[in-house]
């Protein structure tokens, strides 16, 4: 019998991950938008009792941070490492790792970057503004990497649906 803990997850392809990035482009991103997106992520995480930390950075400035029950200081370290991947590559941390895996290698083995500084694990997604490009990152840490990634994607989808 399958339970939520052992249900196989469908791993998105590189093409599917790239399509997410093309779709999840914002018309603008203000301090108020950071608060609204961060609050939405916290609300989704609370509904699921997810022990996560949430972070939003824009142009090197932290605009939002929350640590939910069960999260630890280690989650903040993971957030920083995943966010640096987005800042360096301009793509979601999960997508960067998936691109390396698609080439038959790993980010850790082939990127030549310090794994104590960079982590191509799911959970950090670029904040992309129409006509501007990547201006920051929204990051979640505390769940398995695919779930971290999916939570951020769900929040961005809902955020874009707002009036």
UniProtKB/TrEMBL annotation:
It holds the Pfam family HbpS-like. It comes from the Bacteria. PANTHER family: PTHR28255, UPF0303 PROTEIN YBR137W. Belongs to the UPF0303 family. This is UPF0303 protein GCM10010145_25050.
